[in-house]
C-alpha cells in the first residue's frame, strides 16, 4: 500500500489543479488489528452484554453477521433499488436469540460492533501524514466511504482513532443509499462545488475507488492493500489457521495488527527480488515473533527469585548452525550480547554418552550408515565397526541394525576414550565462548528445535563437572516428547508447542523442517571438533555456493523487514510487539504455511536446495525429489503416499510439485482430516491375469482396488530373479476401453518390502501392447474377441517385483467397494 508523496503533489496544488482531496476510510486511512475485515464481527460478539467468551459462539456470530448483510443488500437492491444499506438494515436480518438477546434489543448488536471497530481500528501513518500535509497546504480534505456506518458514527470513529482530526466533508454511502460507483462521487462534487479536474481521490479498491473517480475526470491514486503474491500467501495462511489452530482457542481473524504490519512493511520494500520477498513476507514475521518469544523468556528467567535473593545471571547462547539466523535478528533488534555455540548433534550425542544407550537411540533414528559415515562420526577408525560394514551387502546397514550391533562393536573402554575426549574439548570451548560461564545461574539455549539434544547433553556434562547452572531451551519448534526426562530445575519452551498446535501437527512440521534449517543455517561447515585451546575445527561445507547465496538473500529480506519495522512511528505501530500472544500465533501460522503449503513461487525458487545431512559426512539429499514423488503418487493411495514419505526431505513441497491437489491433500492429512474409507484404497472385486515367463503361462488372481479418484488399481507380484515377464490382462474382466494412467515398478526381498520400496520407478506407457486391442499412449479400446493388454515388465535385481497399474475405465461409472462383486455401480 504505497501512498503518493506530498512533494510530488505540491506543484499541482500550487497551480490550483488540486483543490479537494478525498480519502477512502477503511484499508486506506484506517487499518484494523485483524487478519480480515470480518474479524470485526468476530470481535463484536465479545462486546455484547451477554457474551461468555465462547469462541465457537463468536464464530457463529460472524457467520450470522455475514448472512445478514448479504440478505440486507439483496433486499435493498431487489425491492427498493437502493445500492447501499445501513447497519440497522443489516441487523434487521440478524437473529439475536442465539446470543441471549431479544428482538427488541437489536440496537445492542450495532453498538457492540461499533465498539469492536473502535477497539480494532487505528490510523495508517502514511495516510495521516499525507492528510495533514494536504490540509496544511490549504487543500480541502475529507472522507468518502462505501460503508454501512452513518456519517455521525463514522465521524466518531475517525476522531477516536485520531483525536482532534478535522475535515471539510464526510460522505458515508449508507446516508445516501448510493456508493461511490453509483452516484456518491457525483453528489460530492456537486455539493462541494468542485470541478472533477480539481478533485483527487485515494483508495484501495479499483472498482469502488479508482474507476468511478477516473470516469468522472477526477485524479485517482490507487493504494492496493497487497500484491497478488501477498494475497496468495495470506489465503494459504487462513487455510493453515483453520486446520491447525482453531481447537486451541485461537480466534479466526484476530491478529493484533500483524497482517496490517506486514502489508505496511511490504509496501515500503523494493520489488524485483523474489527471494527477498520470501524473507520479508514470510520469514520476517516468523523471526520477529521468535525473537520476541525469546526476549520474553529471558525476561521471565531474569525475574525468577534465587534462594539467597541475589539477581539471576542468565547467559544467552544461540546454537549453531541453525541458530545463526535467529542470532542475527537478535543482534539487529538491539538485545544484550549473546554467545554463539557451535555444538551439533554429533558432538552433543557423543559428549552426553556415558554408555551405549544414547548412541543406540541416536542411530536407531538414522535411515542408513556406512563405515565412512561412522569414521566421520567418531573421528577415528574403529576396527570392529569397519569389519561389520565389510560384511554388509553394499557396505551399508540401516540405523536400526547398526544400533542393535553397536554394543558388540564398541567396547566400554573405547566408548569412554571417545566421549571423555569430546567432553573435555567441549568444556574448553564453552569457557572460551562464554568467559563468565561459571558465574551463571542460568543458561538460555536458543535454537530452531526440536528435542533438545544439545540441552540434554550439556545437562549431563554440567552435572558431571559440578556446574550448578540451570539449563533452559527456547525453541522455534518444540518436540514435547523429547523433554520427558528434563531435570526438575531446567525448562524447555517452544514458539510452536502444544500451547498452539497439536502434537501430531508438531510431528508433521518436523518432517518438513529441512527447508527452515537450510534458511537458518550459517554459511559454513559444521563443527568437527575443538582443539586444545577450545577453538572450533570445522568440516568442509559441501553445499553449493549458489545455495548459500540463495539462503542469504532470504535472510536479507528478513533483515529488510526488521529494519523497516523499526523505522515505523512507534506510537502507531508498537502495539504489534505489545501483543506477543497474537504475534506468536501468527508468526507460527506463517511458518506452518511455508513448511506445509508452499506457493508455486516458493517451489520454483527453492526446488534445488539440498540438505546437508551433517553426521560427520559430506552427504547431501535433495529437499524436493519430484521423480520419486511422482512415482509414489502413481502407485499408492493418498494415505499410503503421505505416510510413506521417509524418502522425501520436504514432503509437502515434493508432493505439491506432483499437483496442487496433492499438496492440498497433504495439508489435510497432517491435520488428521483424511478419512481412510474415502482417501484409501477400497477392494472392489478381483481379476484373473496371466503371467508369461520364458514362454510359460501362469494364471494369478489379484484384487481390484478403487482409488479416491475412482481409478482402478491392480498390484501384480512378479517373481523377478533376473527374468523378463509379460503380464496379460483380459479386458473382458475389466472394461472394453479406458486409459492406463501409470505403470509403477518396485522391488524387494518380499512382496511386502516391494510394496514399501521408497524408490519405485515409472515405466513408459509406450511399452503397453495389445492383443485384439488398439493402444496409443495409454488409451486402449478392445477391437476383437478376447482382448488383452500386454505389458512387459523389467528383469529386476530383487527377488520380488511389483507392477502397479492405475487405470481409468470408461463407461463404468462409480466403482463401488463391494467385495468380490462387479466393478461398476
What does this structure look like?
The chain is α/β, with parallel strands linked by helices and 825 residues long. This is Haloacid dehalogenase superfamily, subfamily IA, variant 1 with third motif having Dx(3-4)D or Dx(3-4)E. InterPro entries: HAD-like_sf, HAD_sf.
Write a concise keyword list for the protein shown above.
825 residues, alpha/beta, Rossmann fold, eleven-stranded antiparallel sheet, five-stranded parallel sheet, 33 helices, 29 strands, disordered C terminus, Haloacid dehalogenase superfamily, subfamily IA, variant 1 with third motif having Dx(3-4)D or Dx(3-4)E, HAD-like_sf, HAD_sf
Radius of gyration: 33 Å
Under CATH at level 1, the class of the domain at 681-809 stands as Mainly Beta
Which architecture name of the domain at 681-809 does CATH use?
A: Sandwich
Question: Strand percentage, roughly?
Answer: 15-25%
* CATH domain fold name of the domain at 681-809: Immunoglobulin-like
Number of continuous helical runs: 33
State the end-to-end CA separation: 55 Å
Tally of extended strands? 29
> What is the mean pLDDT?
91
**Major sheet size, sense and barrel closure:** 11 strands, antiparallel
| Shape estimate | globular
Kindly name the structural category. Answer: alpha/beta
| Poorly predicted regions | 819-825
Tell me roughly what share of residues is in helical segments.
40-55%
InterPro entries: HAD-like_sf (IPR036412), HAD_sf (IPR023214)
Protein name: Haloacid dehalogenase superfamily, subfamily IA, variant 1 with third motif having Dx(3-4)D or Dx(3-4)E
Amino acid at each position: 500500500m504505497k501512498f503518493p508523496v506530498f512533494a510530488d503533489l505540491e506543484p499541482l496544488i500550487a497551480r490550483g489543479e488540486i483543490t479537494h482531496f478525498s480519502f477512502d476510510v477503511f484499508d486506506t486511512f484506517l487499518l484494523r488489528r485483524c487478519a480480515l475485515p470480518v474479524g470485526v464481527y468476530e470481535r463484536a460478539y465479545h462486546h455484547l452484554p451477554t457474551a461468555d467468551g465462547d469462541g465457537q459462539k463468536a464464530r457463529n456470530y460472524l457467520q450470522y453477521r455475514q448472512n445478514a448483510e448479504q440478505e440486507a443488500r439483496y433486499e435493498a437492491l431487489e425491492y427498493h433499488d437502493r445500492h447501499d444499506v445501513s447497519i440497522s438494515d443489516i441487523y434487521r436480518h440478524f437473529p439475536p436469540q442465539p446470543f441471549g438477546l431479544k428482538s427488541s434489543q437489536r440496537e445492542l448488536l450495532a453498538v457492540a460492533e461499533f465498539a469492536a471497530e473502535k477497539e480494532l481500528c487505528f490510523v495508517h501513518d502514511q495516510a495521516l501524514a499525507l492528510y495533514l500535509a494536504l490540509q496544511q497546504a490549504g487543500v480541502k480534505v475529507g472522507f468518502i466511504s462505501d460503508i454501512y456506518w452513518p456519517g455521525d458514527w463514522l465521524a466518531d470513529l475517525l476522531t477516536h482513532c485520531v483525536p482532534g482530526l478535522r475535515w471539510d466533508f464526510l460522505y458515508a454511502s449508507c446516508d445516501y443509499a448510493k456508493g461511490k460507483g453509483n452516484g456518491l462521487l457525483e453528489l460530492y462534487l456537486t455539493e462541494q462545488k468542485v470541478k472533477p479536474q480539481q478533485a483527487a481521490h485515494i483508495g484501495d479498491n479499483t472498482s469502488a475507488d479508482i474507476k468511478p473517480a477516473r470516469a468522472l475526470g477526477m485524479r485517482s491514486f490507487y493504494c492496493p492493500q497487497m500484491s497478488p503474491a501477498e494475497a496468495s500467501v495470506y489465503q494459504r495462511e487462513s487455510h493453515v489457521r483453520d486446520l491447525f489452530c482453531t481447537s486451541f482457542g485461537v480466534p479466526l481473524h484476530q491478529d493484533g495488527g500483524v497482517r496490517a504490519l506486514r502489508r505496511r512493511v511490504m509496501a515500503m520494500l523494493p520489488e524485483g527480488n523474489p527471494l527477498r520477498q520470501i524473507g520479508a513476507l514470510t520469514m520476517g514475521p516468523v523471526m520477529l515473533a521468535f525473537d520476541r518469544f525469546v526476549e520474553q523468556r529471558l525476561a521471565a528467567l531474569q525475574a525468577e527469585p534465587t534462594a539467597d535473593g541475589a539477581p539471576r545471571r542468565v547467559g544467552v547462547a544461540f546454537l549453531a548452525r541453525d541458530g545463526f539466523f535467529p542470532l542475527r535478528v537478535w543482534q539487529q533488534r538491539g538485545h544484550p550480547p549473546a554467545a554463539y555455540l557451535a555444538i551439533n548433534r554429533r558432538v552433543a550425542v557423543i559428549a552426553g554418552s556415558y554408555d551405549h544407550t544414547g548412541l543406540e537411540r541416536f542411530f536407531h533414528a538414522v535411515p542408513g550408515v556406512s563405515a565412512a559415515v561412522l569414521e566421520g562420526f567418531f573421528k577415528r577408525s574403529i576396527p570392529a565397526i569397519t569389519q561389520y560394514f565389510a560384511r554388509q551387502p553394499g557396505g551399508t546397514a540401516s540405523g536400526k541394525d547398526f544400533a542393535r550391533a553397536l554394543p558388540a562393536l564398541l567396547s566400554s573402554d573405547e566408548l569412554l576414550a571417545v566421549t571423555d575426549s569430546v567432553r573435555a574439548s567441549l568444556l574448553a570451548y564453552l569457557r572460551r565462548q562464554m568467559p563468565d560461564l561459571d558465574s551463571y545461574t542460568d543458561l538460555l539455549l536458543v535454537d530452531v528445535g526440536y528435542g533438545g539434544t544439545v540441552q540434554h547433553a550439556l545437562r549431563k556434562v554440567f552435572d558431571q563437572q559440578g556446574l550448578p547452572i540451570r539449563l533452559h531451551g527456547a525453541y522455534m519448534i518444540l518436540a514435547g516428547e523429547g523433554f520427558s526426562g528434563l531435570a526438575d530445575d531446567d525448562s524447555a519452551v517452544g514458539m510452536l508447542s502444544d500451547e498452539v498446535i497439536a502434537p501430531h501437527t508438531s510431528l508433521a512440521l518436523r518432517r518438513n523442517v529441512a527447508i527452515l534449517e537450510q534458511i537458518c543455517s550459517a554459511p559454513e561447515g559444521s563443527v568437527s571438533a575443538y582443539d586444545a585451546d577450545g577453538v572450533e575445527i570445522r568440516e568442509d561445507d559441501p553445499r553449493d555456493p549458489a545455495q548459500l547465496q540463495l539462503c542469504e538473500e532470504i535472510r536479507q529480506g528478513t533483515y529488510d523487514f526488521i529494519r523497516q519495522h523499526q523505522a515505523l512511528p512507534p506510537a502507531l505501530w508498537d502495539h504489534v510487539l505489545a501483543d506477543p500472544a497474537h504475534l506468536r500465533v501468527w508468526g507460527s501460522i506463517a511458518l506452518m504455511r511455508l513448511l506445509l503449503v508452499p506457493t508455486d513461487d516458493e517451489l520454483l525458487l527453492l526446488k534445488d536446495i539440498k540438505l546437508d545431512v551433517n553426521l560427520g559426512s559430506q552427504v547431501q539429499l535433495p529437499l524436493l525429489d519430484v521423480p520419486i514423488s511422482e512415482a509414489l503418487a502413481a502407485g499408492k493411495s493418498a494415505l499410503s503416499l503421505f505416510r510413506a514419505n521417509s524418502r522425501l526431505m520436504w514432503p509437502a513441497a515434493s508432493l505439491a510439485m506432483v499437483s496442487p491437489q496433492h499438496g492440498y491433500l497433504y495439508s489435510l492429512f497432517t491435520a488428521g482430516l483424511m478419512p481412510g474409507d474415502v482417501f484409501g484404497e477400497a477392494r472392489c472385486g478381483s481379476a484373473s491375469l496371466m503371467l508369461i515367463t520364458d514362454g510359460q503361462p501362469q494364471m494369478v488372481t489379484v484384487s481390484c482396488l478403487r482409488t479416491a479418484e475412482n481409478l482402478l488399481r491392480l498390484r501384480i507380484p512378479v517373481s523377478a530373479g533376473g527374468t523378463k515377464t509379460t503380464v496379460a490382462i483380459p479386458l473382458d474382466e475389466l472394461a472394453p476401453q479406458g486409459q492406463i494412467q501409470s505403470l509403477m515398478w518396485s522391488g524387494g526381498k518380499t512382496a511386502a518390502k516391494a510394496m514399501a520400496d521408497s524408490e519405485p520407478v515409472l515405466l513408459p506407457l509406450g511399452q503397453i501392447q495389445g492383443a485384439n486391442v488398439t493402444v496409443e499412449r495409454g488409451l486402449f479400446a478392445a477391437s476383437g474377441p478376447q482382448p488383452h493388454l500386454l505389458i512387459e515388465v523389467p528383469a529386476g535385481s530383487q527377488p520380488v517385483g511389483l507392477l502397479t497399474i492405475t487405470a481409468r475405465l470408461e463407461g463404468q461409472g462409480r466403482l463401488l467397494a463391494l467385495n468380490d462383486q462387479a466393478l461398476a455401480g
